[in-house]
Design brief:
two-stranded antiparallel ribbon; single chain; 13 strands
């Protein structure tokens, strides 16, 4: 079982509060994930237990960047002083590299989500590997002109589209020290349902499990519509937010791995 650890301990009671959300701390605590050998995370699919305390939630967003909704979601996260992790689709990262850089500049980590968001179980293995590789390349190219601290926000994290994983691909990622990150709960925001229903389903799922990785989508207007109230409601119920990040040596491991999906832009600094 991979080792995980809190990089930041729980904030003391007198920690500085977020100026626009007094229920939240100014800085989001982080939880480090190791990726050596291809760790897998998220109890919806895997056995790895995240080292989260009671009522700790890690926000993640899939399928962007989207020029209409991603900026709205970034502004909401800023308002609540929350840092998250975004799993980006390569074609959209390629089309809007400015948004990729904006996500990183605001302190969020970036994982990848293939090139075109196809179900990798249905593709020949070689084609699926190309989808994954091109997704990483697109994110890295989008960040190529960013400052080093932003380039370092590209994590060796991968999430399968639709969570449709494949053992051969998990192993292939593992050989490159890339972690597969699933989730513990969602809010069904990929469906054509109202913002209120997205919020209701998300709160219900979280209350049933109590802690873990939440999957949302920064391409959905109803997600942006409900997000601020959703965060406040969770805070009132005693939840707090953490950010999943790579272990400090993880990026260097992934860059040095044979057949690396990352091209060494950070380790070479």
């Amino acid at each position: 079982m991979p080792l995980l650890a809190h990089a930041d301990k729980a904030a003391p009671a007198n920690a500085q509060a977020c100026p626009t959300d007094p229920r939240a701390p100014l800085h989001t605590p982080t939880v480090e994930l190791q990726t050596r050998g291809g760790a897998t995370y998220g109890s919806m699919q895997y056995r790895t237990v995240m080292p989260l305390g009671p009522k700790e939630i890690a926000l993640t967003f899939d399928d962007g960047p989207n020029p209409e909704t991603t900026p709205r979601i970034l502004d909401i996260l800023d308002r609540h002083c929350i840092k998250a992790t975004f799993f980006m689709v390569g074609i959209y990262a390629h089309a809007r590299p400015d948004l990729v850089r904006e996500v990183a500049a605001r302190g969020h980590y970036i994982g990848t989500h293939t090139w075109t968001h196809q179900n990798l179980r249905r593709l020949p293995l070689a084609d699926a590997k190309t989808e994954i590789t091109k997704g990483f390349t697109a994110a890295e190219e989008a960040l190529a002109s960013a400052p080093p601290e932003s380039r370092a926000k590209l994590a060796p994290f991968f999430r399968f589209p639709g969570l449709n994983d494949k053992k051969a691909l998990i192993s292939w990622l593992g050989e490159r020290d890339i972690a597969t990150v699933s989730c513990d709960f969602g809010a069904d925001d990929w469906l054509r349902i109202s913002a209120a229903e997205v919020e209701r389903r998300g709160l219900k799922s979280i209350d049933e499990i109590g802690r873990g990785i939440l999957i949302l989508h920064d391409t959905r207007g109803h997600t942006a519509e409900m997000l601020s109230d959703f965060i406040v409601t969770l805070e009132k119920r005693g939840y707090r937010f953490v950010q999943i990040v790579p272990d400090r040596k993880t990026r260097e491991l992934a860059e040095a791995a044979p057949g690396s999906l990352l091209r060494g832009t950070v380790a070479s600094q």
